[in-house]
Amino acid sequence: TRIERIIMDTKRLVMVAVGGQGNLLASSVLGEAALLAGVPMRMSEIHGMAQRGGVVESALIFGDAQSPIISDGDADVLMGFEPAETLRALGKCNARSVVITNLAPLMPFTVNIGQGAYPDLKKLQEMIRAKTARLIAFNATTLAREAGNVLSVNMVLLGALTQTGVLPLTAEHVKTAMRRKTKPAFLDGNLKAFEMGVGAAQNA
């Protein structure tokens, strides 16, 4: 008998954050959710000076893929924890890509000491919209604070990501993964943050 294998539609996610924003926990939750959903996933991470507020970039590929690397123009989704970093990673996107970004800036050291300029948030959004299919942009930091913990920006963004339906993961997969991967003391706040992210994406 011939065994037919279903070739799963591959989805590529790039996540960019500044060190300390919870990018790695978000990756871990998505990996666990993929396991629960029975979806193969490959992941690679590029660390800058994470401990000093440098850039952390994660590439997650859901479905059948040989390589964990996402080439320029190949991302189905770009999720940015910080708007300037989202803009910096825009080369990973194409005209069909969905972009989700936090709009709360974390000023780099150079801007703080007057050696550089931070991009205008309105222009930044226009540039992203011009190159991609959909932009979901909102202040995830404010929502995280409302959920009870400013550090749950990652869970707010995961809620928005799940709501788009681009990845082959349901909200229940992700929430179950959160229960397994986050500390019990933070779970209620994280789940609330997740739901607020879902709502933000619905209204974006």
Q: If you average the pLDDT, what whole number results?
A: 89
Q: Which range best describes the helical content: under 10%, 10-25%, 25-40%, 40-55%, 55-70% or over 70%?
A: 40-55%
**Total beta strands:** 6
Q: Record the strand order, biggest sheet.
A: 2-3-1-4-5-6
Low-confidence stretches: 1-7
The share of residues in extended strands comes to 15-25%
Summarize the biggest pleated sheet: 6 strands, mixed
Broad structural category: alpha/beta
What series of H and E elements makes up the topology?
Answer: EHEEEHEHHEHHHH
Compute the separation of the termini in Å. 49 Å
Number of helices: 8
Rg from C-alpha positions?
17 Å
What is the approximate shape?
Answer: globular
Overview of the molecule:
- With 204 residues, this protein is of the alpha/beta class.
- It is built from 8 helices and 6 strands; from the N terminus they run βαβββαβααβαααα.
- The chain has helices at residues 23-37, 83-88, 109-112, 121-131, 140-147, 153-164, 171-181, 184-203, and strands at 11-18, 41-47, 55-62, 77-80, 98-102, 134-138.
- Strands 2-3-1-4-5-6 form a 6-stranded mixed sheet, sandwiched between helices.
- The longest helix has 20 residues, at 184-203.
- Mean pLDDT is 89; it is low at 1-7.
Give me a quick take on this structure.
This protein has 204 residues and is an alpha/beta fold. It has eight helices and six strands. The longest helix is centred in the C-terminal third of the chain and has 20 residues, at 184-203.
